[in-house]
Amino acid sequence: MIISSIEVFPLTLPMLQDFRISSGSVGDKQAGAPHVYVKITDKDGMNGWGEARPSHRWSYETIESVTATINTYFTPALIGKRIDNFSYVHQVMNREIKSGLTVGQPIAKAAIDTALHDLIGQRNKKTIGELWMGPTNSTINLSYLISTRDVKEAVQKATDAKTKGYKGLDVKIGFDPDHDIYMVDAVKEAAPGLFFRVDANQGYTVAQAIYVAKKLEKLGVDVFEQPLIANNLLGHAEIRRKVHIPIALDESIWSPGDLLQAFRLEACDTAVIKLTKMAGLHRAKICGEIAREAGLDLLGGGLTESTLGLAASAHLFNYLQISAPVDLNGPFFLADDPVSEGPVREEGTVFLGDRYGLGCKVSSDKLQNYTVE
Ligand SMILES: [Mg+2]
């Protein structure tokens, strides 16, 4: 298969509500949310789609950097190349954009990687799961995301989620320890019995995290995600020695190498698998497989991608057989989505179906509407 063209569509998608994490807004009802779609066409005229969802409040990548990196560096390096395997694709991209402390510009690389998976699925008339010869089960449970500091609103959302049949909650904390604990307590009481994941997005110091972890343990929270800044693996190991609640690492693990370092330092019980931070399906799958073999638990998440990114992630989590409800809530924040046909989403569940590749049809009208210069 020879790559003939790579088209990049920087988009601002309209949002239904704001989305905040401890480091700030990652999507705004007024301004919309930055997404980048990529279309790769081969010499036979077949194509595949991929998505990047950069947020400068979550990592250093932006809509501008993703667009420029693909157009200026990846496209000239990949056009005309025969793509036989994904290790080679990543070698080419990693030669163009070097690593920093960990993989360089993984979100831009993920858009190319997922578009190629989609294209190869189309060419071979197989779903992603079939390409990987994975399990055939194609239903994914979602967790409901709560990202507000207003306790009343959080309780209302938790109650709604339970009523709608969600199996898990993901609550964003990492702002103020006592207020965070107060909110988690209220939410837990409003929606008992659900899988309960709290995510501090690097918001605490070691002392704050230990204080919060001990309270969360008493409240029966299932897992405490990324309490400290990403590069503080020793701090996470210290927390693990002092508390019993499982500690999950998300922003600390971008690559198989990061995962191995975290494992060697005993810094986590659980690894959060996300295809965009891990530069796409190929390397996220490797991370998931290593974590599984190492005896770690797995959680699945996304960076609020639209339905295209959700579909790619859902294929991955289905393959990895992640049992805890996964955090793939991007489409629920959006007022409109460039995917016109794709996996069926009902409240709390995604049904992948048997369409080839990622299983999504992208609307060119919507792309045109939301493309920004
Ligand atoms: Mg997280």
From TrEMBL:
Domain Mandelate racemase/muconate lactonizing enzyme C-terminal residues, every copy: 151-246
InterPro entries per record: Enolase-like_C_sf (IPR036849), Enolase-like_N (IPR029017), Enolase_C-like (IPR029065), Mandelate_racemase_C (IPR013342), Mandelate_racemase_N_dom (IPR013341)
Transmembrane regions: none
SMART domains in the cross-refs: MR_MLE (SM00922)
Keywords: Isomerase, Metal-binding
Pfam families (UniProt xref): MR_MLE_C, MR_MLE_N
UniProt KW Metal-binding keyword: yes
Presence of keyword Metal-binding: yes
Family according to the record: Belongs to the mandelate racemase/muconate lactonizing enzyme family.
Protein name per UniProt: Enolase C-terminal domain-like protein
Protein source organism: Fictibacillus terranigra
Higher taxonomy: Bacteria, Bacillati, Bacillota, Bacilli, Bacillales
